[in-house]
Design goal:
- With 273 residues, this protein is of the alpha/beta class.
- 42% of the residues lie in helices and 9% in strands.
- The chain has nine helices and six strands.
- It has helices at residues 17-29, 41-44, 50-57, 70-93, 120-128, 146-154, 182-196, 222-238, 255-270, and strands spanning 4-5, 96-99, 135-139, 161-164, 200-204, 243-246.
- It has a six-stranded parallel sheet with strand order 1-2-6-5-3-4, with helices on both faces.
- Strand 5 (200-204), helix 8 and strand 6 (243-246) form a beta-alpha-beta unit.
- Helix 8 (222-238) packs parallel to helix 9.
- The longest helix has 24 residues, at 70-93.
- Bound molecules: zinc ion.
């Protein structure tokens, strides 16, 4: 079974699906989550300017929800660390792990929007660079990981942390991708792995790529989302690469539709542990 990294202190009262769906996904996954230590201030500085980190944590700069809520700030120490802990686990043990987290890829080096405050992708990938030469991020969220690109450029890490997202050279979400079988997704991921030779894959299994997602950026049917997951997991396994996946966007109402997409990812993930 895929281990799920989740801490109860990730939970806050904020009424938004990206916050509320996470504990519900963990509950429905039906396994005891792995807990971990929260990030400290210096961990956030691995992706962001110290002034920005200080502004957010002192509630003088608005977070990615556009609020000055200290409870959300507290939860950020745990949601970001969830991905970091899952990365360290897979580097130790190989295989696949799930981080029950989201809210990262619009967080820029010194600003934020779009429900993202700190870029847990960049922080976790950067921590992995002490142990592997390169990290490949396959960002399957239906929106562009512009914050990730910005952090990597500002930190001059774009040659060691490869960000494949909705825009850019390697762009995921081309018109033909909506018709891809699991085998074609596997070939797509194989191509990326051969080109970049990463030692770790971080896969954002974004559920807003669903073609019925209300944010209307989606391009994959429910079954096609499963094919994407299956192909990416199969490719990482064939290359014996550790892979960590997390939840990312997904805004369907009722929330259960989005959770079903994440549970489908989990079911395929369990086949490749
Ligand atoms: Zn999105």
């Amino acid at each position: 079974m895929t281990p799920i990294f989740y801490h109860p202190l990730q939970q806050v009262a904020h009424r938004f699906i990206s916050v509320q769906k996470i504990p519900e996904f963990v509950r429905q996954a039906g396994r005891k989550p792995v807990e971990f230590q929260p990030y400290r201030v210096e961990d956030f500085e691995a992706a962001h300017s110290p002034a920005y980190v200080k502004g957010i944590l002192s509630c003088t700069l608005k977070n990615g929800f556009g609020t000055l809520d200290p409870e959300i700030n507290q939860a950020l120490h745990y949601s970001n660390a969830s991905l970091g802990a899952a990365v360290q686990f897979t580097l130790d043990h190989g295989g696949v792990a799930c981080s029950a987290s989201q809210g990262f890829h619009h967080a820029h080096y010194d600003n934020c929007y779009g429900y993202c405050t700190f870029n847990g992708l960049v922080i976790a990938a950067r921590s992995a660079l002490e142990r592997v030469e390169k990290v490949l991020i396959i960002d399957g969220d239906a929106h562009h990981g512009d914050g990730t690109d910005d952090c990597l450029q500002r930190l001059n890490l774009q040659n060691r942390i490869i960000n494949v997202s909705r825009r850019g050279f390697e762009k995921i979400g081309r018109p033909e991708h909506s018709r891809f079988s699991a085998t074609q997704w596997e070939q797509y991921a194989d191509g990326l792995i051969r080109r970049y030779s990463p030692g770790l894959v971080i896969y954002q299994a974004g559920a807003d790529a669903w073609d019925k997602d209300p944010y209307e950026a989606g391009y994959l049917s429910f079954d096609a989302l499963g094919a994407r997951d299956q192909g990416i997991f199969a490719s990482a396994k064939a290359h014996n690469l550790p892979l960590v996946w997390n939840l990312a966007g997904g805004y369907a109402d009722p929330m259960q539709k989005t959770i079903d997409i994440h549970l489908q990812t989990l079911a395929f993930s369990d086949q490749y542990v």
